[in-house]
Amino acid sequence: MLAVVAATACQQMHSNAPQGPAGARLSLQQFTDQANIRPLTSNSSIEQREAAPGMVDSEAPQDLRLRERQTIPRTKNALAVADQISQIFSDQPAIPQLPDPPSSDTSRPVPSSSQQPVISGVGPSSSNVRTAPQDIERLSSPSHRLSPAQTLGRRQRSTFEEPEDGGGNALASEADASRPATKRQRRDSMLTDHNNHASSSHASRPVTNGTHAVGNGFRDTADSFGHSGTAATMQNTTLNGSSNSAAGRLPDYFGHSREEVTRILIQALDDLGYTEAAEKVAHESGFSVESGDVAAFRHAVLSGDWQRAEQLLCGSGSNGSGIVLAPGADRTAMKFELRQQKFLEHLERGEKQKALAVLRLELTPICHNRPQIIQALSRYLMTSGPEDLRNKANWDGANGRSRHILLSKLRESISPSSMLPEHRLAVLLDCVKQSQIDNCLYHTSNEQPSLYVDHFCDRSRFPTEVLVELSKPASEATSRQAEEVWQIRFSPDGKRLASCGTEKAINIWDVERFTLVTQLEGHAKAGIGDVAWSPDGKYLVSCGFDRSWKLWDTNTGECLKVADTFEEPVSSCVWTDDGQTFVTGSLDKAKPLCTWDIQGNCLHTWTKSHRTCDIALSPDQHWLVAMTEQKQLHVYNFATRSHVYELSLTNRPTSISISADSRHMLVNKTDHEAVLIDIETRETVQKYTGQKGGQYTIRSDFGGANENFVICGSDDGHVFVWHKITGTLVHEAEAHQPRCNAVAWHPTDPCMFATCGDDNRVKIWSYKDRAKMLPGTSRQSNGVSDIRSLLGPEMWA
Amino acid sequence: MGLAYNTYLNSSRIYGCKGCKTHLANHDDIISRNFRGQHGKAYLFNTVVNVEAGEPAERTMTTGRHVVRDISCRICSEIVGWKYDKAYESTERYKEGKFILEAELLCTVN
User: Fold this and answer.
1) Is residue A175 within 8 Å of residue A164, measured between CB atoms?
2) Residue B9: inside a domain, yes or no?
3) What pLDDT, in 10s, does the model give residues A583-611?
4) Which of A156, A159, A305, B61 is deepest in the core (most CB within 10 A)?
């Protein structure tokens, strides 16, 4: 009979679900009325029942009551209900059949299938004031027949929430609807302030995740955990503020420590601006982002209470334990930072006597081995006012960012488990995104990946086909054959391409229309080995075998400056990022590296005498690497112009380039391999093989979205593309005959690269469908539709 | 042929091409100074750099029949000497694979 009743109650439950909590409780009332059982408490507020657990007796009828209430929302299966009820009547402690919450095994013989998802999903969020360990402790007295009751009570509560959360979408929308105004307002105002990683995608989360958590039915994925937790928290806290279903909690979150995950989430909620939610989570879970001492320390630093801060630092906190420092942290250094800030603040306020006292009594004793610091600080005593002090000391003032900067500095020395590093969740998400991008084999997209799906680029956009071959007007086609193209470079904005080689002129092509724009004439017929664009694309320096370099204006094509005082050919050139100076490398022993400005003045001649074949400058302007013809690399500190180290290679290198993150250099060698070397540690990080090297210069470079690829020419005429991090060969194609000299990847378009070779051709590569997107119908450049110019006149002779 | 820079030598006395001063050989690499070419004195070297060899031709010299190739400077394509491919006389075998540079066509580079 009870089974029937339970079944009908179930149906009622589900049909009543849209009514929300009122509806749920109502059907429960109906059930209890029907079953002629007096409810435990007059109103169905679960807190009361929870508050007096001792009063819950192990009488059978109450058991039955609770049991039945429990079964209603959870079970969807009348048979399962019947089983449970029969167990009760068989007068066994229901524990064996019921999943025992305190036991930490995650595999539960759950009688109802819907129970587990509830607990795992809602557990951490729908908790009580009590901390988790206490709950588990209390529950783990299996002999006490209170525990099943308590268990039941708690579980019921959690299941009580389930239909409201899981079954009733209306509820979620109600809850959301009741709060969107406040939520959104706070969210909007907070987000304008927060310039942290909470991007606009975060902004839409709270609303959608309310329904998300509901819709998923709490079978959370790692992605939506935080959000479903948040949403569920918000819902649960309005429904039953102090429910205590800690019973249902897993001891760890899918293999991660519950404490770590919760604390990181609380910090993230705080960062996002949901301070109320953060507090509630902290309240419910019992964890806090930082211990009392750490919070007090932070408060002390930010409010300028230096004495208290030092007290806490030295371990005389309220508990006597103080703050736990990270391993290797130096208390004295931290004290120095605090006292320095104190000193500067006194000065700013004009309290020179106090500042002097600080300097004498507090700073000097701890700096006894570094007198120059004391001297520097005492110079600040001579400043005329707060403005002057701020400028001289490069310090933001007490009301500015200086205290926060100080806190950040000190934070590095505090153990990360007591004071979480800033924005920890954002840092972790960044890591995940970056590792997905780094491992993407055909990465051709510049957009940030979404957090919802693992990032994956598909091969269809990877450049594998020759899109167009850059050729000049037909009148010059006859003389093509004897010429070779030795170097190609895209302009920094990607709109133009310069090519140079045995021809006397340097050709500048338009990359969008694939036509010849300008020709820079002026070099003698000896060959031009390298060209370099200035960062703004206005100038171009060409390095010639005629022992001179020339500076050109790329728009007008005129030669602005020449320097021909070299005894040997000029081999290569790099610009600094200000576009005003550049460094040339030459095979002349007396002038291997020279810095010039755009007026043509030689600013500096680097004195280490070696013959430079190629040079590269790191984007952070820190490293300058010069490659000699004697199998050596010389690495200089560009800022100080000092020689840092010399690296000997096993075989002759032919080209060198530096990655965009300024950490690695790519050296192409004649022994058929290219190596990626970490500049600071000098370790070979990765090797790329497959191409052929010979006695001629073959160039390789970085390229692609996120610089995921290494591209290289080859002595056998093929072009090779490898994945930078894993070293796998991604693509190989025949490019030129007899050899492919240089390659260049488009700086802004991840789906295009260019190659050049000894057949006097420059080819642009992209993916197949790109051809349809070309402006104009003809695929040949410069409007030359005659196929003869592509094949070369010798084919038609 | 592709982009290639000259090879540079490292020693106290370097012989280079008279026309373009391209390094050709080290003074220390001389095996014998007892040779004569079309233009007068010539030296036998073990190795020379920055030269390109022409087609092999059989020539009869004072020491007998040899198969030689003319070598020319890489940059200015001026002939600077020759290289022995094969010597028909057994006493002349030591010359095989070695280079002759004519003193008249060289200059000293330091």
Assistant:
1) no
2) no
3) 999 988 888 888 998 888 888 888 778 88
4) A159
pLDDT in tens, A645-696: 999 988 889 999 999 999 999 999 888 889 999 999 989 999 998 888 888 8
pLDDT tens-place string over residues B21-80? 889 999 988 998 988 888 889 999 999 999 999 999 998 888 889 999 999 998 888 899
User: Greater confidence, A380 or A797?
Assistant: A380
CATH 2.130.10.10 fits A485-648, yes or no: yes
Tell me if A732 sits within 8 A of A478, measured CB to CB: no
**Nearest by CB: B3 against A587, A611, A697:** A697
Please count the structural domains in chain B. Answer: 1
CA distance A227 to chain B (A): 59
Instruction: Please say whether the beta carbons of A436 and A448 come within 8 A.
Output: no
CB-based contact, B110 to chain A, within 8 Å: no
Axis crossing angle, helix A2-16 with helix A78-89, rounded to the nearest 10: 130
* Distance between CA atoms of residues A165 and A211, nearest Å: 9
Q: Among B1, B3, B10, B17, pick the best mutation site for testing chain A contact (most A Cβ within 10 A).
A: B3
- Residue B36 CB contacts under 8 Å (≥ 6 apart), including other chains: B42, B62
CATH number at residue B60: 2.170.150.20
- Rounded to whole angstroms, what are the CA distances from A580 to A535, A604, B106? 9, 14, 43
Nearest to B102 by CA among B69, B84, B80: B80
Q: Is the Cβ of A143 closer than 8 Å to some Cβ of chain B?
A: no
3-state secondary structure of A687: strand
Domain span including residue B26: 14-109
Count of alpha carbons within 13 Å of A515, Cβ hemisphere only? 11
Percent of chain A scoring above 70 in pLDDT: 64
A696 touches chain B (CB under 8 A): yes
- Antiparallel, parallel or unpaired: β A753-757 and A740-745: antiparallel
B8 touches chain A (CB under 8 A): yes
pLDDT of residue A482: 74
Instruction: Give A530 to chain B, closest Cα distance, Å.
Output: 10
pTM: 0.62
| Nearest-angstrom CA–CA distance, A287 and A267 | 11
B2 is a domain residue: no
The tokens for A749 are 């378009």
Per-domain residue ranges of chain A: 290-422, 485-648
Is the peptide bond preceding residue A142 cis, with omega within 30 degrees of 0?
no
> What rounded mean pLDDT belongs to chain A?
71
Residue of B nearest to A484 (CA): B2
Q: What is the pLDDT of residues A739-753, one digit of tens each?
A: 899 999 999 888 889
Strands B40-45 and B30-37 turn out to be antiparallel
The helix/strand/coil state of A76 is: coil
Cβ-based neighbour number of residue A791 at 10 Å? 10
Q: Which of residues 511-550 of A touch B (CB under 8 A)?
A: 527, 529
Q: Do A696 and B8 touch (CB under 8 A)?
A: no
- State pLDDT tens for residues A212-240: 434 343 443 444 444 444 444 444 444 44
When CB atoms are compared, the residue of A487, A501, A697 closest to B4 is A697
Instruction: Report if residue B6 sits inside a domain.
Output: no
Higher pLDDT pick, A161 / A394: A394
Average pLDDT over residues A404-417: 80
| Residue among B1, B2, B5 minimizing CB distance to A571 | B5
- Judged against a pLDDT cut of 90, whether residue A490 lies above it is answered with yes
ipTM: 0.84
Q: Does B94 contact A at CB distance below 8 Å?
A: no
Residue A113 gets which letter from DSSP?
T
Q: Do A698 and B2 touch (CB under 8 A)?
A: yes
Out of A250-254, A259-263, B52-56, least confident range? A250-254
Write down the pLDDT at residue A540.
92
